[in-house]
Amino acid sequence: MSLFEKESAVSALEKMLVKERDAILESDFQTLSKLGDKKEALLKRVAVECHEADSLRQLQQKLTANNALLDSAARGIKSAVNYIGDMQASPKPLQTYGPLGERNELGRPALTIERKA
Prior knowledge:
The chain is mainly α. It has helices at about 10-25, 30-50, 55-90, and strands at about 95, 105. The model has no long low-confidence stretch (mean pLDDT about 85).
């Protein structure tokens, strides 16, 4: 590409999708937020320009793959947040069994309020 040639919207979007994929895999949320507006503008350019069906198909595959990665990342983050919340909310005591088979609970004693008359 010469100095004065304009990069096609498809090739620019392909490069951006690679950057987006790398940012997703590295959990670089700052880069992802910066890429969002640029990606939207490039998608609008792609919609206006005429392109070969094969290049559009490749773009669709990359977009679909990145969306799947984003969905997986979101599920993982939600799962981690729920797990941490569960651990902080009410830790369950560890249940063990004694030599005679009786159940014992190890852990924090239950918080109770004792009333005195």
